[in-house]
Amino acid sequence: MKSNITQEELEKYIAEQGAVLVGGCELKASPITGQENLKYAFSFAVKLSDSILKTIDNGPSFSYFQHYRAANSLLDTIAFKLSQRLEQCGYNAYPIAASQSLGKNNPYRGVVAHKTVAVNCGLGYVGKSGLFLTKDYGSKVRLATVLTDMPLINEKGVIENACGNCDLCVKACPSGAIFGTLPTTDGERNYDPEKCSKYMKEHFQDVGRGSVCGVCIKVCPKNKLL
Ligand code: SF4
Ligand code: SF4
């Protein structure tokens, strides 16, 4: 039997676990084959440390790499706990890891694009860098998603891209991965994840796998470091 828990109560719960931004929305369709009921999503973000981001200097630092992984771990924990909470309330829930790939044949895509869901939930917009940008924290955030059959709505509206004429990330990207275009509404990428990843592997193998160089975060004027 379903409990009468509300979207607002669950968003409060997500925030209490450490998320700085949270929202819900209805998707066009469930991304999970055979589970068409999972057409609603919670999106949430945790904030990266300003002090750690200051250590990025033409490439990732060890502290940034470890912090990036810690942020993913926190997001995965929140997604796990939220999913359990939803199930206890009688709803289906499908947590999607912060960093996910669909294997060798599709290494740069997960079950859903967290950024697309976060845009639909009204948390921010995708910048020319391909990074997710928010009003209060710029791109100093990482995202995760939980799909569910609990009816959810976007109560915040959608935030328009505010990059304007800026092209600082395009000029600064050492791998030439950023096209300099605005994202399209169909979720097509405006940067080349393969180039970005190759650059990391070629130049910063010693720092660790599963991170990015971070220069596009460092140069973005939407990120005012404290
Ligand atoms: S992480 Fe580095 S290589 Fe990748 S898009 Fe950003 S600036 Fe370019
Ligand atoms: S650096 Fe400029 S163009 Fe790139 S994402 Fe930030 S605001 Fe947009």
Question: How does the SSE layout of this entry go?
Answer:
Blueprint: H1 7-16, E1 21-26, E2 40-47, H2 50-53, H3 62-88, E3 93-96, H4 114-120, E4 125-126, E5 132-133, E6 141-148, H5 168-172, H6 193-203, H7 215-219
Antiparallel strand pairs: 1-2, 2-6, 3-6, 4-5
Write up what this structure looks like.
With 226 residues, this protein is of the alpha+beta class. It has one domain (7-219). The protein is built from 7 helices and 6 strands, in the order αββααβαβββααα. The protein has helices at 7-16, 50-53, 62-88, 114-120, 168-172, 193-203, 215-219, and strands at residues 21-26, 40-47, 93-96, 125-126, 132-133, 141-148. The strands form 2 sheets. The chain has a 4-stranded antiparallel beta sheet, sandwiched between helices. The protein has a two-stranded antiparallel ribbon with strand order 4-5. A hairpin with a 5-residue loop joins β4 (125-126) and β5 (132-133). It is globular, with a radius of gyration of 17 Å. The termini are far apart. The mean pLDDT is 90. It binds iron/sulfur cluster (SF4) (2 copies). One iron/sulfur cluster (SF4) binds next to α6 and α7.
Which structural traits does this protein have?
binds iron/sulfur cluster, 4-stranded antiparallel sheet, globular, 31% helix, 7 helices, 226 residues, alpha+beta, 13% strand, two-stranded antiparallel sheet, single chain
